[in-house]
Structure formats: structure tokens, C-alpha cells
Amino acid sequence: LFVGRLVCDIKVSAKELIRSRSYDLGTLCQAVLKINDNQRVELEPEEIPKMYQKAEDILKLISFTMQDTAYILKIMYDLNVIPLALQITNIAGNVMSRTLMGGRSERNEFLLLHAFSEKEYIVPDKEFKKKETDSSTSKKKPTYSGGLVLDPKIGFYDKLILLMDFNSLY
Fold first, then answer.
1. 133-146: per-residue pLDDT in tens?
2. Structural domain total, the chain
3. Is residue 59 domain-resident?
4. Is residue 44 part of a domain?
5. Is there a smaller number of Cβ atoms within 10 Å at the N or the C end of the chain?
6. What distance in Å separates the CA atoms of residue 113 and residue 124, rounded to the nearest whole number?
7. Which pLDDT band, with edges at 50, 70 and 90, does 70 fall under?
8. Does some domain include residue 114?
9. Could you list the residue range(s) of the whole structural domain that residue 31 is in?
């Protein structure tokens, strides 16, 4: 169904482009389009099968669906999703479909790969580890070995030293 077509999920794109308490359509309409809460009809999933019983309810359902689709398109235009994704793809050198899916780490990896290639470094192939299917090991948290911490030696350094703690790496 989607082969050869780019899928642009505004929820994924909005998470990268704006800060919001929630990224559902109603909240995005309020935050981006400045639409009041009462301007958009929010249907509960239980209501939808009931709307197929009468022709006028089906027309209402179609109207609500078309309105939501128009809101999605407006949000996409207001956030400039496609042009920004194209620029990011051109800079990173990856595939646009992956950019639209929000793979930040993959974009960083491609940036590094291109930078190393320009410097004529040989980059090793990416290694993929097989995931174990054993259910007993999947419940445990992954363990990481920490960095080597040396005991300080008094008087070893006679100038200033810089201590950097990369908290996000742990």
C-alpha cells in the first residue's frame, strides 16, 4: 500500500519540531493552529460503529474525518515538515523516509560516516547483535560496564584540569 510513497506522520515530526505536553491531534491543533477545543469534534472509538446505522451519521463521520485530514495537512504546512525533512536528509545524506520516521541516531551516524569518508578513513561495517529470545533474560535490565576511574594523585597536575561528566551517556 505504501511502497514507493513517503509516509509523513505529523505526530513523529511534531515531537522533533515543537515542545508540547501531548502530541495527539487535538493538542497539536491547539498548539500549532490555535484552534479552540470546541472547534474540533473528538470521536470516541465506541461511537464510530454506531454512526454506520444512519445515512446522516455516516455523512457526519465523513465530515469529521475530512476536517481532521484538513487539520493534519495545515499542521504539516505550518510546521514546514517536508522542506525541513528534505534539508535534514540532504545534510545527513540518509534516506528521506528514515528522516520522516524520526531516526535521530541514524542521521548522526550518517553524518559521521560521510565525514569519515571525506577524510578517507575506512569505516568498519555496522555489527548487529542477535536478540536472545529467552524470556528469563528479557526481563532483566541491561548492564553496562562503567569507565575506568583512577585515584587522584596530589601534585600530578600543576595547571588547571577539566572534568567532564557526560550524564546522558549513562
1. 655 555 667 676 77
2. 1
3. yes
4. yes
5. N
6. 10
7. very high
8. no
9. 19-78
